[in-house]
Amino acid sequence: xxxxxxxxxxxxxxxxxxxxxxxxxxxxxxxxxxxxxxxxxxxxxxxxxxxxxxxxxxxxxxxxxxxxxxxxxxxxxxxxxxxxxxxxxxxxxxxxxxxxxxxxxxxxxxxxxxxxxxxxxxxxxxxxxxxxxxxxxxxxxxxxxxxxxxxxxxxxxxxxxxxxxxxxxxxxxxxxxxxxxxxxxxxxxxxxxxxxxxxxxxxxxxxxxxxxxxxxxxxxxxxxxxxxxxx
Length: 231
Known about the structure:
alpha+beta
């Protein structure tokens, strides 16, 4: 509540009754604080009165043309909202594609793994003439993309001094490929691993020959172990 009888703002704006002018004039003379407050409000009133007429009488907005609006493209605000939604849509599509990819990988990987396992094969080698009949020999072959070859032998004759055992993929004496050489120890066992790029399905037999260590890469003709036909 104002501490003066008259509101300084109303006095500055001239919003007082005619019969109050004398009392207001007396208050302005007798109360410096009241006079200063009225003067401050008068400066505000003068500033407002100096403003251009448009500040007091703004230009009215144009009439709404309903026909023009309904026949034109969507308003800018609507277009902006549509654009704002597009990233969310693409993110949804990307997420769905990622889910499809994960599912596809989950389906394909086990299939690939089972194919790789099933493409490997372990074959039994039988003793040929001159070898113990109870010899146990197996060879694990990779798939046609190549890979690791492992030979395991037990109960065989030890490899003589100056000789090695050589493992082959063979179709005939002239159509064959060497997989590697190994020796059967004094205990009649051997366990060797090789790597090959050859495709086992291109050959009919797995053969083991006894080879003199003379540097000759050809098959000696002295086979000691051989598999049944692979296919």
